[in-house]
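Bug #77: duplicate submission created two jobs. Keeping one. Sequence:
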Amino acid sequence: MSRQRRKESVEDLLDNNNIPSSTTTATKERNTSGHVGILIIKQLVVCFCTIYCLLLLLLYLSSTFRQQLVFLNYLKNPFLNYDDPEAFGLPNTTNFYINGKAGKLGVWYVPANGLAAINDGKPVILYMHGNAYSRATQHRTSTYKVLSALGCHVIAHDYRGFGDSDGIPTEQGLIDDSLTVFQWILANTNNGPVYLWGHSLGSAVAVAISKILTETDVSVMGVILEAPLNNMRDAAFNHPLATPYRMWPFFQDTLQEVNEMYKSDEIISSIKYNILILHDHGDKIVKFMSGKKLHEAALKHKKENQSIEFKEFTGFSHTTISASEDLPEILRNFMKLDK
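Kept job's structure:
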């Protein structure tokens, strides 16, 4: 009888929740974890919405912010040692500086085949990179290596405000800086063949200086445009970062400011040099159709004996066309290089 009463007493305590069972404790822990998870999700949603609204406000109110989104020059690694190009896989490369209108411009000279001198008569390529980061970025150095292996000298500079170059970027500033470096090339290459290479935003710079050089009757052997934008407005509107903002009516108005920037499709037909356009079908940063539109614009006023080519790629996205096995042969044919 005594044991029976003790058993009933324990069961009564459990029923009255005076002593919690293991099942009850586990349930409470799950409920607590669930509440914490929901709270974290709510906080993340609030944080995302706040950031979204702040960016929306900045886009609408700040001209400076809109221009910064074009150049993204504040995205940089402040600890890079540009004096050591070999650390970036570029042996025998020289780091030096040129005086530009806004101060010093950081430049790398990547010699042909890693050995030759810049005034030996081999082709020299002025490389103009896209927005963000610097001349030391990996996909850019990969392109230098391909060009060097083909027997071309490469001069790669950072525009004002990029890398270790002085100044604040502007549309005209990038053009001026590239012309300054081009003049340095002319003064140091003993009249060797010079090509212009522009990637992404750099393609717009290359087209702009090609127009200026055409008008001043300066000799350039060809212009190579990798993943080019047809104009800045289309590039900005179709950029992945613009996706959350396209629904807003005023977003079109904010683009009016960039409408006047880098109208490559309006000026490319005035260029007299041979043109080669390289674009990948899967490019999500500058859409493939941008390259096609630019090609069509160039063909409208094709000059006699002018070559205007468009080469399509698949599987190399926006930054890795240099990895294509077809690229060296395409470049050899365009530049008429010896194999």
